[in-house]
């Protein structure tokens, strides 16, 4: 299914949204540069959303080619203390003599900000910079043709938890829920957050047998089983479920078996695959 760590690209109404910066970001960056050449050198603008700052979700950033281009602009968001954590994590990974370029040498414009769970991002037509709005104090934005990004804090991952994102546009939505561990009876907050989504991308790293292994139990490790993901998908009545964050020890044959078993419980279940392209109309 691909050996890269998490990175998902979403395009909506001319806006580019990138979810996490794992090693998949390297290939995406190269493709963005190719597209830039084909578009006559039009500058690259993107909103980058990090679920958290664990290394497998940030390790692609030093090799992200558009970050070295002066005309590129990135609006980067993540959980509480994210601004300090991501800068520190990237700075350490790029220190000499282990890396030839330091973080401050990246020539792109980068606006990095913590995102509170009560805030949402609004991407207006022809306006690259997102508008930040407190949905409880200010209410929703009364603007047509806007892309909205909402946040849910999940506590089902070690240390400080992760952010789950929902991207909505013209009555359609995608929920990105990686690195989260399910609960007995289903994660009720995530179910409500995902209600009616077109696509739910949900962590499903371990099989049920691995999760309950009496010798090395994976309970409390911050990852789900396909059954946990399906429980959310069914209760939230989502249209399609994509199992995500595959265990590195699972070969393709194992993953296909996982997909086949999952489809018996929720037919519209699919494996997330490297290079998979989904269109929502």
UniProtKB/TrEMBL annotation:
InterPro entries: Metallo-B-lactamas, RibonucZ/Hydroxyglut_hydro. It holds the Pfam family Lactamase_B_2. GO terms for molecular function: 3'-tRNA processing endoribonuclease activity. Keywords: Endonuclease, Hydrolase, Nuclease. It comes from the Bacteria. Residues 4-223 form the Metallo-beta-lactamase domain. This is Metallo-beta-lactamase domain-containing protein. The lineage of its organism: Bacteria, Bacillati, Chloroflexota, Ardenticatenia, Ardenticatenales.
């Amino acid at each position: 299914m691909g050996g890269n760590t998490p990175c998902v690209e979403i395009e909506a109404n001319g806006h580019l949204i990138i979810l996490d910066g794992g090693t998949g970001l390297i290939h995406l960056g190269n493709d963005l540069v190719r597209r830039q050449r084909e578009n006559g050198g039009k500058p690259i603008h993107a909103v980058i959303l990090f679920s958290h700052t664990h290394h497998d979700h940030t390790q692609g950033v030093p090799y992200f080619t558009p970050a070295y281009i002066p005309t590129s602009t990135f609006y980067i968001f993540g959980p509480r203390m994210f601004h300090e954590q991501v800068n520190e994590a990237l700075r350490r990974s790029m220190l000499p003599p282990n890396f030839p370029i330091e973080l401050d040498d990246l020539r792109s414009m980068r606006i990095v900000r913590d995102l509170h769970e009560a805030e949402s991002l609004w991407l207006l037509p022809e306006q690259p910079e997102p508008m930040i709005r407190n949905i409880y104090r200010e209410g929703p934005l009364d603007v047509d043709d806007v892309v909205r990004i909402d946040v849910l804090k999940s506590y089902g991952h070690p240390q400080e938890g992760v952010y789950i994102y929902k991207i909505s546009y013209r009555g359609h939505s995608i929920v990105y829920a990686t690195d989260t561990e399910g609960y007995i009876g289903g994660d009720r907050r995530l179910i409500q957050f995902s209600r009616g989504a077109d696509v739910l991308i949900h962590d499903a790293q371990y099989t049920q047998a691995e999760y309950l292994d009496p010798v090395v139990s994976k309970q409390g490790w911050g990852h789900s089983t396909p059954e946990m993901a399906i429980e959310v998908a069914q209760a939230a009545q989502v249209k399609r479920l994509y199992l995500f964050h595959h265990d590195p020890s699972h070969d393709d044959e194992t993953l296909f078996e996982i997909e086949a078993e999952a489809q018996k419980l929720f037919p519209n279940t699919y494996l997330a695959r490297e290079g998979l392209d989904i269109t929502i109309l």
